[in-house]
Amino acid sequence: MEESCKVGSDSSSRGRSSSITSGPAQQCHGLDVLPPELVDFIFAYTSYDKATISACALVSRSWRSLCIPHLFSSLTIVRQPDLASFERFLDAKEHVASYVRELELRQLESPHAAVACSVLAALCAKLPGLQLLRLRRLWLLGPTFHPLSPNSTYSIVLHRKLKELVVDDCSSGIGGLLSSWTLYNILQTFPADTLSLSHLTTADEDQQSLAPSDSTFGTAIQGTRVRVAALSLHHVSATIPPLFDVLRHIFVPQRLRTFRARWIDADGGNLDSLRSLGEFLREVGGAQLRHLEFPITIGPIVVALEDKPDHWRALQLHTCCNLESITIRLHVPPLRSLAIARRRPDQPIRQLLPLSSVLCAFIPHLSSSLRKYTLVLLESHPPRSDLRSRKKMDLERLDSALSEHLPGLTKFQVVVCDSSLLEEYSTAILEVMPKCRQRGILEIFAYNDRRAAGILLEDATLPHA
Hints:
- By secondary structure, the chain is of the alpha/beta class.
- The chain is built from 16 helices and 16 strands.
- It has helices at residues 36-44, 50-57, 61-71, 80-92, 94-97, 117-125, 180-189, 217-220, 242-250, 271-285, 356-362, 390-393, 395-405, 422-432, 434-439, 450-457; strands at 5-8, 19-22, 74-77, 102-106, 113-116, 132-136, 138-141, 162-168, 192-198, 230-236, 258-264, 291-297, 325-332, 372-379, 411-416, 442-446.
- Strands 3-4-6-8-9-10-11-12-13-14-15-16 form a twelve-stranded parallel β-sheet, sandwiched between helices.
- The termini are far apart.
């Protein structure tokens, strides 16, 4: 099509100006020609980059209407005055409250700054779209008794469920402990499908992290327990039985579908800890438990009959009869030797057993419903361990145990910690596990591989309990 162009000039003393016009209207290019739904999807990728999303909001009115919801979708409050000013802002801009999906409150001005649970509850009640709440390094002030007792004035409770609640390194103020009553009141105030507890430790590691306030704790909350579909524990001392005893009292029985203990002090030789964890899995999960992940720490030598199936019966994995996937994070120390092995005086020197003997010992307790088994091999630093020794690892035994006890297994995944050694490990594992390879269920990944991250973080869709 022929285009026409007209140039005009003005010879006035104020200067010259030129104008150019074209026949057909010039077409617009850029994001403006895309559907608003697609543009909104693009802006969602920058929602955590506040500077970028703020700049985009200044481009045009159409962009502003699309950017504002993402600008307020994730908020972090770190100063005490900001907590009150944000609440006043919500009162003045009520439409903004519906945009907030994630809220984090952490270390308000000073370590373990005090904040009342009732204040947090009142704030969250104004956020109808809130899905994720993170509480980090806070001194939580709340009642030290049952919230439904006659003496309680603690009446603000969310009447809807969050998708996830994260409680990280919080305390009740006294001795750095997060008391059982405070934890219970937090979970009652902010009900959530998924609960993540992190850094439940104290300055004195000999103290109990979740010490019950009194012996009537379990009886007092009977009938008002918390429903949780998924529980994650990170950097938690699990060698103290009261930890799982308190959690067992708090949660509704037979409701837990996913339990992940990523980094906990779980010594396989500590029978009291195994019994406490086993009672928790049996009562809170049982037949409803579908996904399980927990670490096993191998000591200098295998002690306390860890290589015997009867030792692992304390975990009561046989009660999890519908288990679909299990992930074992195997923490391996530096090269073991009998000379450096720490053993009790009453224990005789035992044979240095292969690491797979521990893994094989609890396989008979797993349900035949298991379809996915993931083994994460974590080395100490520097990375010199028995994982480099075919004899001390003895995966041939594990290969036979999987074929014998888990014939319905559809996927066995091995995740190695060092990507530079992936090729070396893969060659060795494929050679010593021919049965799994013939069944087509063997997969090997590096720990920092994105695919491995997907393996470890994969969850089934959690129903609203």
